[in-house]
Amino acid sequence: MKIKSIAKFQKKTALLFISFFCVVSCSEAPNQQTVLMEKNMPIATISTTAGEVIIELDKENAPISVDNFISLANSGYYTDTIFHRIIEGFMVQGGGLDADMQNKPSGSAAIKNEANNGLKNDRGTIAMARTMDPHSATSQFFINHADNDFLNFSSETTQGWGYAVFGRVIEGMEVVDSIALTPTMVVNGYQDAPANPVTINSVSISE
Q1: Are 138 and 121 in contact (CB under 8 A)?
Q2: What is the mean pLDDT of the chain?
Q3: Residue 14 belongs to what domain range?
Q4: Global confidence as pTM
């Protein structure tokens, strides 16, 4: 019995070691399927006056939100919009107003809320901003500066729909951190507006 127990333990240990080795080595090997899948995800590069933020867009789990974002980005809509709502320790929101805090119409129809896709509003994720109507998102988005569980989907009700995550920051989170530290004030009736706007120069997409 002791020999069998030792054999079982050694087998489990070996499997754990193999699993661990695969996680480490697969993440470093460019030919592994998991890496290829990540590379096939659309990548958005948000160039701002504070630096670049590179985002992996989750088209598999949020196809409507991703297609909408890509369409607006490719049209040049996001150029010269700003991060107009900034709350350190919560999120930075942009993609709808210019430096004068004037709305920039997107011309796009409101999209279906995909917050029930299983993705969470964790630090570094990007999600669609909206009004009190769950299915009202058009162009505005926000990047979570902290884990914001209360923004997650809980039920298909007005209060429970939550906010649809459609990607995550893979480079440039330090830029998001610097944006979050921007001093804010009330501008044209908007609270938490930047005293010195952080402008989006462009959003480029690579697929």
Answers
A1: no
A2: 86
A3: 2-36
A4: 0.81
